[in-house]
Amino acid sequence: MAKVVAFSFGRKMSNTEVMLKEVLKKCQEAGHEIQFIRPDDLDIKPCTGCCGCVVGILTGRTNGTCIHKDDFHIVEEAYYSADAIIVGSPVYETSPSGTFKTFCDRLGPSHDIAFLTEAKKDRLASGDPNVLLPDEIVFKPRVGALVGVGGARTENWTIFTVPIMYESMMSAGVDVIDTHTYFGAMNVQHVLGVPEQMERMDKMAQNIIDALAAETEEERTKWRGETDGACPVCHQSMFRVHEGSDLVECAICGINGTVGLVDGKITYKFSKEEQMRSRLKYAGKLEHRNEIADGAMTQKKVENLAELKKPYLHIGE
Question: What is the DSSP string of 235-278?
Fold first, then answer.
């Protein structure tokens, strides 16, 4: 038996929540333990960008302890206890809710699998028997699924939702196997009046159940969504186009590829090397970890900074 945890950023018993609970219900019927979390009901303070968690990991003093003393530990404990994670959010201004973004910011480097893996290696290499090691639960493989719910009748008003929702899976290295966006939700009072959407949640539940039952890593992590998307890693199709060239960059993975035209159809090519350095892969996370570690530990100091700041202290206040 595995554990499936859902995090809903929607209103109580509204569309997002009920869709996630449909997934949980099916997973429970398949014999899995389930848990439902509504972060909006908790006291979760926004990240201040103080980098205390990063410095704590890099110096060995902590495993990413946050300066805030709030309810985030409830979210953290549920997240780490899971074998499968489902995150759902309504669409506000083309993207997920503000609470969702706060949730992602607090997950950040303090829960980054590369930061924690390298910290474990360095601390074990020190030979100190009393060294602080990360809890082994942070290294547990997990699969994930994402659900966005938008009222707009046109899908383009939900365009940033799923790409941004990948942030909830990046740090901890959760393997996303399925995503779904329900748009046009304003057309019907409640999703319970839209059978095809509930059936899609049943399919998502089955995808999670199948992934949890997989006997190989390849089978566990394989993409099970309805469409393949243009990017071979995240299976989404949001790119930054490099002006004046055939280069494109996946906005989610941060990997570079080329765009072409074959028989009137647009094609995208991403090398195996680029695919492996995706933000969703360990190599990509390690690349970013090393970049942050170098910046945090070797940052150039500015002389007389306190004096330089004084002219700006009360401008516009």
Answer: ----EEE-TTSSEEEETTT--EEEEEEETTEEEEE--HHHHHTS
In the chain, where the domains are located: 3-226, 229-300
How big is the chain by its Cα radius of gyration, in Å?
21
Residue spans of the chain under pLDDT 50: none
CA distance 4 to 81: 9
Note the pLDDT tens digit of each residue in 6-33.
999 999 999 999 999 999 999 999 999 9
Q: Which two tokens stand for residue 26?
A: 């099916």
**pTM (global) more than 0.90:** yes
Kindly state the tokens that stand for 169.
């899976």
d(CA 132, CA 112): 17
Exposure b/e, 9-23, CB count within 10 A at least 16 = b: bbeeeebbbbbbbbb
The CATH homologous superfamily of the domain defined by 3-226: Flavodoxin domain (3.40.50.360)
